[in-house]
Amino acid sequence: MLEKVMTTTKIVQMDSLSARELERLIFYCGGSGAKVAVIEDNRAFELRDRMLDELNLIKEIIRLNKVFPDPKVADIMEMADSIAGKGINIIIGIGGGSTMDSAKGVAAVLSNGGDLEDYLGNTPLRKIEKKSIKLILIPTTAGTGAEVTKFGVYTARTGRKYTLNNTLLQADIALLVSEYTYNLPAPLTAATTFDALSHALETLWNRNATEVSDRLAIEAAIYILQWMEVAYDNPVEGRREMLQGACTAGIAFNMTGTAAVHALSFILSEEWHIPHGVACAFTLEDVMRLNMQDENTRRKLLAVAHGVFGEGAEEPLLKGLFHRIVELKRKFRLPFTFSDINVGLNAAELNPLFEKSLDDPKMSNNIVPVDMKIVKEIIAAKSL
Q1: What gap in Å lies between CA 143 and CA 369, rounded to an integer?
Q2: 184-209: average pLDDT
């Protein structure tokens, strides 16, 4: 994985992780006196739980699990307040994107003080200016790439979702443990693989794209498209590869940010609590079709198509790539219309809700400018 050189996070790939190995890593990061808090989700997960139980016998740790999808400021503040003043200098986040973002949020608050909500929005009251806690992230789904990004996504007390962007949120170490992604349920595999794919594609049709981000995103998109169906069909095969693909996509969009797909997805999560990866998949083909109007984006997508299908003429390859994504979305039973997600509002009722997406900085990253007219067209197509 040569892409490791393009991130400041130290990436370690392993098939399994023992308590002894994690204790060694804690020692290397903080010495024998390291004080550790582990942030995890509250689902039963035998591999993780057994390892952490064994770790606690070797070295005392504090375990926190106030983690839910679309992590809320109130929950993060409750966890941060519970360990404030206890000298914690290492935080380990082990779980999906919400868990890793929660770990980032707790570490940021403990390092900088105040309330997490003070750091959110287009005109925040405070800025993250220091990092006094080492952050180790261990993904248990292959999708978000949060283990290698400077972003955290949080739900304010008002219910609005915000992306916090600061290099000091970046993890010091990411452990990609293949075994932790085995046997993911098919719906979760579907959502997380499409989240990873959207990261790669949104890097390509991004105003902030560079030669380096393009190269990373093209390689990630090809790799994800080659392995996502394998992972969906099999509890073990393709899991290591999807971890690598999602991580590479994370390194790529860490350079550019995301774009229209993610801006629109936030409304779905805010209003109807649609899981993040599902919300991204919802408009992926619509936004892809929009951005294929841009010639430079077409060139990049053609490179992806060549990697997936081999040589061929431009138009058939691009059509094949588009249809491949749509076919995978259909096979993975992801939603195409508002009725698929049990939203019974008509377009006139939906439009005001999605107008908020235009204020999201991610929307301005989209290579083809998106205005309310385009948003309405997408909504209308989804309302049929």
Answers
A1: 27
A2: 97
Q: What separation in angstroms does the CA of 280 have from each of 17, 22, 35, 95, 148?
A: 31, 33, 37, 20, 19
The predicted model gives 173-184 an average pLDDT of: 96
Residue type, 343: V
Summarised one tens digit per residue, pLDDT across range 95-142 is: 999 999 999 999 999 999 999 999 999 899 999 999 999 999 999 998
Whose CA is closest to 80, among 117, 44, 46? Answer: 117
Tokens representing 161 are 């979702």
Measured between alpha carbons, how far is 137 from 295 in angstroms, rounded to an integer?
38
pLDDT, tens only, 21-74: 999 999 999 999 999 999 999 988 999 999 999 999 999 999 999 999 999 999
Is the torsion defined by CA of 244, 245, 248, 249 positive or negative? negative
| Cβ-based neighbour number of residue 187 at 10 Å | 15
CA distance 187 to 170: 28
Tell me the percentage of the chain whose pLDDT exceeds 90. 97
Alpha-carbon distance of 286 to 201, in angstroms, equals 13
147: nearest Cα among 219, 248, 217: 248
Strand pairing report for 134-139 and 90-95: parallel
Distance between CA atoms of residues 143 and 153, nearest Å: 14
pLDDT tens digits along 140-174: 998 899 999 999 999 999 999 999 999 999 999 99
- What is the C-alpha to C-alpha distance for residues 273 and 268, in angstroms, rounded to an integer? 7
What angle separates helix 314-331 from helix 295-309, to the nearest 10 degrees?
Answer: 70
Task: Please report which residue ranges of the chain form alpha helices under DSSP H.
Answer: 19-30, 46-58, 73-83, 97-112, 186-204, 211-233, 239-256, 260-272, 276-291, 295-309, 314-331, 347-355, 372-382
How far is CA 48 from its chain centroid? Answer: 20
Q: Which helix (H) or strand (E) holds 235?
A: none
Indicate the pLDDT class of residue 2, thresholds 50, 70 and 90.
Answer: confident
CB within 8 Å of 378: residues ≥ 6 apart = 264, 283, 286, 287
Amino acid making up residue 328? L
Name residue 358's amino acid.
Answer: L
In this structure, what are the phi and psi dihedrals at residue 238, rounded to the nearest 5 degrees?
85, -5
